[in-house]
Amino acid sequence: MKSQAAAIKEARANALHFLLRSRDEGEPWFPYSPKGDCSLEATSWSLIALRHDDKVGPAGLDYLASSQNKDGGWSTKPKAGKSDWTTGPVLLAMRLLDSIYSSSQKTGGKEALTRGMEHLLDSRVEFFGPTGRLLLLLSKGPEGLAYGRGWPWDPKCFHWLEPTAYCLLALKLPQAPEKDLHKQVVHFADKFITEHACQGGGWNHGNNTSLGAFLPPYRLTTAEALLALQNLPADEKVQQALSYLKSQADQDSSSLSLAFSILALNSYDQSSDKELAFLLGRQAQDGSFGPTTMSTALSALALEAADGTNILKARGAH
Amino acid sequence: MSDDHDQSKREHEQSDKNHGQSKKDHGQSQNDQAVDIGRRDFLKVAITASVVAGAAEALTGCGGNDKDSAAKLTREVPEKVSESQAARRRQGRSSVAIVAVENYEADIFAIVKEHLKSFAVPDLKGKTVVLKPNMVEFRQDKPVTTNPAMLQAAILLAQDWGAREVIVAEGPGHMRDTEFLLEATGLGPMCKKMGVPFVDLNLDEIEEVDNKDGFTNMEKFWLPRTILHADAVISVPKLKTHHWVGVTCSMKNFFGTVPGRKYGWPKNLLHIKGIPHSIVDLQHLVKPRFAIVDAITCMEGDGPINGVAKHMGYVVLGEDLAAVDATCVRMLKLNPSEFPYIRLAGKVVGNIEEAMIDVSGPAVATIAQTFKMPITFTDKSLLAQAAQQGS
Known about the structure:
- The structure holds two protein chains of two kinds.
- By secondary structure, chain A is mainly alpha-helical.
- Chain A has helices at residues 4-22, 40-49, 56-66, 87-101, 109-122, 130-140, 161-172, 180-195, 219-228, 236-247, 255-267, 273-280, 293-306, and strands at residues 209-210, 213-214.
- A two-stranded antiparallel ribbon of chain A has the order 1-2.
- In chain A, β1 and β2 (213-214) form a beta hairpin.
- In chain A, α2 (40-49) packs parallel to α4 (87-101), α7 (161-172) packs parallel to α9 and α11 (255-267) packs parallel to α13.
- Chain B is built from 15 helices and twelve strands.
- Chain B has helices at residues 2-33, 39-60, 69-72, 83-86, 108-115, 148-160, 178-185, 187-194, 225-228, 260-263, 268-272, 275-286, 321-330, 340-348, 364-367, and strands at residues 94-100, 128-133, 165-170, 198-200, 206-210, 220-224, 232-236, 238-242, 246-248, 290-300, 308-318, 357-360.
- Chain B is of the alpha/beta class.
- Chain B is 38% helix and 18% strand.
- Chain B is globular and about 45 Å long.
- In chain B, strands 1, 2, 3, 4, 7, 8, 9, 10, 11 and 12 form a ten-stranded mixed β-sheet that branches. In chain B, strands 5-6 form a two-stranded antiparallel ribbon.
- Chain B folds into two domains: 2-72; 84-386, no CATH class.
- The interface between A and B is large, with 59 and 61 residues.
C-alpha cells in the first residue's frame, strides 16, 4: 500500500510525462489537446508545471519571447491576430521561469518581459473615456476615478474576472510589485474583483447580478480569484469566498476546478484533503487529468502544492 | 422568479421616476439661476454631463474605441441590406416539421423518424456531421441546456440519415470548465454512451475566415476547425426566452461556435459588435445544414439562464433555420418580425413569413402557448446592459 505522499509524487510524475508526450517531438510549445497545434496558454501552464526541467524551461522561455506580438502582448497562438487575454498567462510563466533561469542561462526573455509588462498595463479596460474621466475628476475629485479596472478577454471589450485574475497573478508573482505604477494597477484590479463578488461569497465569470437577479458563483472562478487576491487575506469578500470554496469540498468536480481549488486553499493555508482525493481519483491511465494539457498542468501544480511547494502562493502575502 | 421579475420592474420604474425628478430639478435650477453659474452649479452640470458622457463611453466598453457600438447594443438592425447581402438568402419555400413528443422518457428518435417519413431530411451519406447542442451554462433544476435525451435522438437521426461520423461540439459561453459542464448537464455521459466524440469548440484549433458582407463590421472571424471542416453542421438548441434578443433558438445557438481561446468566456465581442448582427453573420460563416429544436421543456421569463421551465412537448425540425426559428416564435404566440435578428435573417438567411413556410404537423395556432417574456422585451432601455453581461 503506497503512502499518500508517494501516491502524490507518482501521480505528479505521470502527469508531467503526459505533458511531455502531448507535444510534437522537438517543439518547445504545447497544445490544448495532445498533438494539436500551439496554444500559448497551454504552453504557459505546462512550462510552469515543468519549470525544473532544464531542457524544457529555457527553450520554452525563448519560445514565448519569440512569439510576442509587435504591440508587446500575445495571442492565443502565434500569428493569430491582435494580442488578447493570453498575455496574462504568458507573462506569468515568463516571470516565474525567468526567476529560475535568467541568472544561469542565456534567454531572450528580458526584453520581451519588459515590453510585455508595458503592454499589460496599457491593455486594461478604460471603462470611462477621456471625457467621462475628466468630468468625474472635476465633479468628484480623485475619488471619482477610483473605480475598479480589470482586463478584458478581447481588446475593446469589458473587463471580466478570469483575464483580470491571470494578469494580477502575472503582476504579483513571483514577488509583489515594487513600482508605484504597478501597485496602483494592482489596487484597482483588486478592487474590480472584490466589487464583483457574488452575493453570499465567491465569483462567477464577472457578473454578480443580471436584471435584478443575483447570479451564483462558480467553483473554478472563485479559486482563480482567490489566488489573485492573496495580498488581501482579511478582506471580507476573500473570507466569504474561502467559505464558499470550502463548502464545496464534499463534491467531486472537474480536474481543472479541483486543481485550482487545491492551489487556492493551499495558498491561504487551508486544508484541501478532500479535493486532493477527488483529483487523484480523476487521473487517467495515460497520466492526464481532464480533457486538456492545461487541466493536466494545473493538476500537476496542485499535486506539487500538496507535496509542499505551491508555485502560485505569494511569498509573505499573509 | 416572478417576484424577482416584478421587483426588478418596480425598481426600474422607481429609477425612472427619480430620474425624471432629477431632470425637473435641473431644469428649474437653470431657469431660476441661469445668469449666475457658480461652482456648485458647475459641479451639478459636470456630474450630469459626466454621467451622460460616461454612460455613452461605457457602452462601448472601451472608452469610445468602437464608436458605433452604442447603436448596435439596441435592437436596431438595418432595414435595408445590400444586393450582395440579399443574394445569400435562401430561395423558394421552406418546410418545417413540428413533432409532438410528450417528454424526454419517450422514444424521441422513433417518434421523429416516423413523422419525417413524408418530410425532406438531409442526405448525410458519407459525411462528417457536427451536432451543436446548447450547453451555455449549468443551473440545477433549470432547463438551460439541450436535454441529453434530445441529443441522443439527434445523434441517432444523423446516423440514420447516413452520417459517416458524428461529432458533438460546443463552446460554452460563460464557463471555461467544460469538463464540469459535460458531467453536470449529462451531455458528456450521453456522448460516451453513444460512442460519439465531443469537441470543446472553445479550445479547438482555429482558423481565420473572411466575413464579407457581414453586419458586425468584423472583416475576419476566428472559428474552430471542427466547424469549418465539417461536411454538415446541425443546430440542436433548446427553445428559450432570451433577455437580450427575445428568443434563443437554432440561429442564436451558434454563439457557441465562437472560440473562447480567442474571444473569451463570455464572448463579449459578439455583444459589443451587436448581438443581432453577430447572430446573422454566424449563419453565413457556419453554414448550418439543419436544425433539430428541443421544444419539449422550454424556458420562459428571464432566459436564457434565469428563467423557469415551461412545458411545450414538441420537437421542431427544418433545413431553413430562419424558418425554424420564426415558427418557434409563432409557437410562443409572438410575431417573428418583432425580433430584430429574425427580421434581419428574413432578408438575408431564409423565410420568416408564415405564407412561405410549409408546416408538417399540427397547425401552429392550435398549439401555441403564451410565454412570459423577459423584462427587456418591453423595456428596451435595459438593453444597453447587454454589452456588459454574458448570454
